[in-house]
Amino acid sequence: MSDLEEPTHFVKKIIQSDLDANKIQRVKTRFPPEPNGYLHIGHAKSICLNFGLANTFAGECNLRFDDTNPEKEDSEFVRAIIEDVQWLGFKWDGEICYASDYFSKLYEWAQHLISVGKAFVCELSMEEMRLYRGTLTKKGTASPYRNRCPEESLSLLEKMKKGQIDEGAMTLRAKIDMGSSNINLRDPVIYRIKNLKHQRTGAKWKIYPSYDFAHGQGDALEGITHSICTLEFQANRPLYDWFISNLPVPSKPKQYEFGRLNINYLVLSKRKLKKLVDDRVVDGWDDPRMPTIRGLRRRGVSARAIRDFCDSLAIAKTDGIVDISQLEHFIRDDLNQHAFRAMCVINPIRLFLHNYDPAKVEILQIPRHPNKTELGFRSVPFSSMLLIDRNDFTEDSSLSRKKFKRLVLGDYVRLRGGYVVKAIGVDKNSKGDIEQINGEIVEDTVGQEPPEGCKPRGVIHWVSEVHSVNCTIHQYDRLFNTALPEEGSQPFVDYINPESLVVKKDCKAEAGLADASIGEYYQFEREGYFCLDSVLGSQSNLVFNCTIGLKEKSSKYS
Length: 558
Ligand code: ATP
Ligand code: MG
Fold this sequence. Notes:
The structure is a single chain. The chain is an alpha/beta fold and 558 residues long. The protein folds into three domains: 20-258, Rossmann fold (3-Layer(aba) Sandwich); 270-341 and 471-548, CATH 2.40.240.10; 344-461, CATH 2.40.240.10. Helix content is 25%, strand content 24%. It has helices at 10-20, 41-56, 75-87, 103-115, 126-133, 150-162, 211-222, 237-246, 270-278, 293-299, 303-312, 324-338; strands at residues 28-31, 60-65, 97-98, 119-122, 171-174, 189-193, 207-209, 226-230, 254-258, 340-342, 344-345, 348-353, 362-367, 377-382, 385-389, 393-394, 407-408, 412-415, 420-428, 434-442, 459-460, 463-464, 469-476, 501-509, 521-524, 528-536, 541-548. The strands form seven sheets. Strands 10-25-26-27-23-24-11 form a seven-stranded mixed β-sheet, with helices on one face. A seven-stranded mixed β-sheet has the order 21-18-19-20-12-15-22, with no helix packed on it.
């Protein structure tokens, strides 16, 4: 950080003062995901904070997998997390680290604790242990195995490690203080027997360290100076410090906690997101309705928008709920600046221009971005047979110009980037539905003011029918129909919005979109921002996901 900049939040202040006081020479942070699911936007806050601090203070940030629980972990998640961190635009220092790389060292340290009388092998069952542990108001009771001699504990630990003891029959516990007001210090379990294959170490280990026993020691081994985690770990901090001061660790990291990101209308918990995937409520971890990095990406949200949003968040010592409109603001703002414009008619109806030569095709040049002419122009074919949106036309000429700034029978409207046209009649089918609007162009109005007396009501989008590209649009609404789905009286899955995905087929986009590539995003004028998801079939049907509307919507649910 330059001398002129004032640290903006408490973690920065701590780091700055540690550097000023020469307590550390260089800051080192880490992002420590557990590979039991895909990353979500809450993790992005932690990623931006940890990698951001390393950038700000010219330090380093590690990526470390907290892979101590083989039950729920998988190499699929490891690969996805690596990709997502990279996609977000961050690069870790050195090799990727894994808590499992430290299993041997941790085992040695467990033996060390036993030798100095600070750990013991316990034979209480889970249930007994819970009873002995006490409560917030009642002190715990010591395990009858607490004073077992170190030699015996060492030999039992060895047997546990070799798979000679049944799962659940024994644990290794730190010997701290059963009378502590902090339950975490009441002789916590540091090793459990788990007869499970680990995705990296295979069948080598039959015992696995607890999160608390692995995390701080991993920090110490990597030389992490500031171990930043979310508030729920505050009560674990004394235990973190206890291990660091009771083990011969090579460095002395410190833990700091900040408030985790919560956003209304979203659920940010890998466990709950996994349930949505497993129960097929959504189409997978990358479903565009998911708040995962994958989902947001597929929805059309850029890494830049996610980073800008995360940088706008308070780093505080309290938890809060961020309004989803704050996230949406950053998504929209980013797309407004960077998305090329295009036209796509979602509910097409034909507009036939009777005074335009049916054999003629004009190629209009329309700016890719209205405020950035340096981005150039796109070629948009114009012909006598156009498609406009059904909702942009009415026969009701009594509607005021202020109320209906689109095409009205007998009146004028401007076609975006093209002519001013007038609606002169309609063709209807036997049921009375309009099948075609008949119209006329006003000559010489491309890029020019119309003649006196001809006042277009507004501007609408359009495509030339024969040149248009078929597409399917996925329109999304919020996944939950209540702001705080985790806090209702029913399980969170009961608040799923059944209309969170609406598929619109037979939409027609301007010709140039035939060349769009997957992941590319556009502003479809007057409709919103859309991202190309996939291309279906030989007909080149383009599937677009709607990222977000043009304007902040007032939620129908709030
Ligand atoms: P989840 O509850 O979604 O499973 P977690 O905390 O168990 O999240 P981890 O993989 O352990 O997930 O998290 C990796 C890092 O990301 C941790 O440091 C954690 O504190 C941080 N993190 C997780 N969720 C959030 C969030 N909502 N806001 C900020 N940081 C988060
Ligand atoms: Mg976790």
